[in-house]
């Protein structure tokens, strides 16, 4: 009996080598997340404006309402961003928390169960069917079949015997071994790959880079406008008034609620993706996935159901007797079984055995097994002797060529006939035909018991197994093609199976390349093959994935890469959008990913891309909506500073427009449903920003037109007094919301009027904005905003301006659409 380590020695080694776990990256402190919310240029500029407003009000002896309101908005924006980022960080931590698995070890001469984290080098571990190997070890005795796909990407079972190495994280199909541990934790193969993966810097998404550039431009333009206006106002009004105008301009030029609205839009998008079985680990990726133009996907479990199934039987001549005997061989010549694990039924055994037994699960066990000759990779067959009420029957299954060689008769219908060479060749030809379609094929045989057991068998027929495609995948692939997205299959399986599945799900390809062929190719040759239209790569390793990814990225493609194994983590981490499998994926792969598919389904990737495109469209819409208002505000404040001896809009009024009456509809735009053509457009370019030439033209032209209309209403009511005119101007910005939404809907080319009002939150927000404005105008609260109630004549002017604004806005949108070819 093997003694193993003593408990004292194991404890000593645990102190030396540490716990047997994969070290995770340091978690981000909540204080650091909170502090980061107040470091953006926009927020810093607003804080500067609040300080300036405070100083102006102090020296003028006025209340600090403006400065307090600005600081309140800054704080609210920071808290909103903190809540969303903290939730995302907590979601990452939840993903990393694993239920500590147990491991069986031999210590002090006794077999015992301990937490796998306490396994140390030198321990003797006992591993059997259904276990996950807890550490890297060398087999001392016994045999088993393991699934090394987490490390190698190869989905077939691998037989291990004395002297072979087994690796941490690999699942065990069948068998039992005692093995000696030689590496734990970060020293295992799994740990080494995890360390490499964690060393890769997490780059910023294209969207984050766009937002940074966009924000810097806004801040630079705002500072320039403030300096110029302050210089003009200083000579005209003096330092105090010039300072107040500068604050007004700062508030007018900056879309204060843009950071919060963007964060909320991304968060709501992430929530929608989670509902559709895609868990987002990096918030910014919810938008970035929308510009993916290549999906590199696994086959097993992603395009397919991830488990072998009996697809059909083939007989020389079908009959009830043949079907009955075939079912019995599948049932009795089989070591698969079910066990209860955490109250749920779980299948244990070889995946082929499981598929066969599940197919004939309607049979009830009878009799008893007398003898078994187990399967081995050398023999390529398995036989059992089963006794039914005193009668012994031999059931055999295995590779067709082996079973045929062991058979001298065959079942044809109800009769047993001689198995001659012609029939043998016919069966082998059928076998080859089925193999070319990607099936895994076993031959079935039986006989009444006689020695030798595995000679003179009666050939029954062939059973065809495969991992079938998921039913929804074909439609998802077709929709990806219509959206201009290329689909590439990268699998560890054989080329015939890969091509057969590709044909079933509709993946187009100009040939198939294997991993060994890839090894002989230069990057230039691989690029040429990809350009030629090769979309299937078979017998690959995760390192081939990484190479294919790098070649595609050098060509300027935005690539989504799926994976589940430990070695996949390198490719997942470097991909523009890394996608890990939630069911069969290793924790290392999940840690490296941006998105985790909770159902391991390719169709979920399609759904996530659709959601990403919807989010980007909506971000573009509310940026259009907010900036048009900002352009108009800046022009109004700037022109009125030059033209009038008084301030046209106070900072508090501009903040109210930007944050409440503009902010609510902008937030509602973020939940707009996807446009009908969202998956019929080609992906946008990686570096295409939020504001393209078409949107810039619309923002500028409609912003200028809006400022002209609202200044017109101001001039029309100026004879009634400055306070009346200022209050009318203030309200004109609110009324114009309805015009801007109408122009946005026109730009979307929505054919039906009811589609304009499909987003009920937008309708409610517009109504609420208008009601809130009435509260400001006709309640004591108005004193804080320095407004007076409006009469019928002022409202008539406002309505006339709204009609003029609507007509001219649609005309401008039509002209810009005709002059530019870009998407809105």
How would you describe this structure in keywords?
8-stranded mixed β-sheet; elongated; 18% strand; 824 residues; alpha/beta; 25 strands
Brief summary:
With 824 residues, this protein is an alpha/beta fold. It is 52% helix and 18% strand.
Taking the sheet with the most strands, its summary is: 8 strands, mixed
* β-strand amount: 15-25%
What is the share of helical residues? 40-55%
- Radius of gyration over alpha carbons? 35 Å
Average pLDDT works out at: 85
> Quick one: overall form?
elongated
Q: How do the strands line up in the largest sheet?
A: 8-25-24-23-9-20-22-21
Strand tally: 25
Give the low-pLDDT segments: 95-99
Structural class: alpha/beta
Number of helices: 30
**How far apart, in Å, are the first and last alpha carbons?**
76 Å
Explained architecture:
With 824 residues, the protein is of the alpha/beta class. It has 30 helices and 25 strands. An eight-stranded mixed beta sheet has the order 8-25-24-23-9-20-22-21, sandwiched between helices. Strands 10, 13, 14, 15, 16, 17, 18 and 19 form an eight-stranded mixed beta sheet that branches. A hairpin with an 8-residue loop joins strand 18 and strand 19 (457-466). The radius of gyration is 35 Å and the shape is elongated. Residues 95-99 have low confidence and may be disordered.
